[in-house]
Amino acid sequence: MNSTEDTTAEIVQFFSDFDDASRNEDWMRCGDMFAQQFLTMDPTSATPVARDNLVAFLPHRKSIFNRAGATGTTLGSLDVEPLDSNHVLARTTWDVVFDRDHDPVALRSTFILRREDRWRIAVYLNHDSLLELLGLA
């Protein structure tokens, strides 16, 4: 394998672990996958966030899904583009899993990961409003 293939394999494993941590509501493990400070963006804002604040927020995010009758998400697609030896762009779609019949909903997110002691999310961009996609806005 060359370094690009190695990096891609590492990022595929990273998002598999991220998906698993999210499904199992292992909020500390999810949080540990983010940089100590990271940038989160959506259609209406761009905000720096401390990792500890993210971990504290994740149960609330889960309650938003519950209100919509959703049990969580699964990774639908992942496109990896190494930017340099320490940064990777990852474009993802996450399929929302509902506990009843529901039209498909896909969350589009783009991440920039930074290699520190290991790969961590430095930028997290949600392309759409979660509340709107889930029919709660």
Q: List the quaternary state of the chains.
A: single chain
CATH-defined fold name = Nuclear Transport Factor 2, Chain: A
Q: Helices and strands: which structural class?
A: alpha+beta
What's the helical proportion of residues?
Answer: 25-40%
First and last CA, distance: 46 Å
Q: Quick one: CATH class?
A: Alpha Beta
What is the strand tally? 6
H/E element sequence: HHEEHEEEEH
General shape: globular
What count of helical segments does DSSP give? 4
**Rounded radius of gyration (Å):** 15 Å
Average the pLDDT over all residues and give the rounded result: 94
Annotated CATH architecture? Roll
Roughly what fraction of the amino acids lie in strands?
35-45%
Domain count: the total is 1
Enumerate the strands of the largest sheet in spatial order, edge to edge or round the barrel: 2-1-6-5-4-3
Largest sheet: 6 strands, mixed
Instruction: Give the low-pLDDT segments.
Output: none
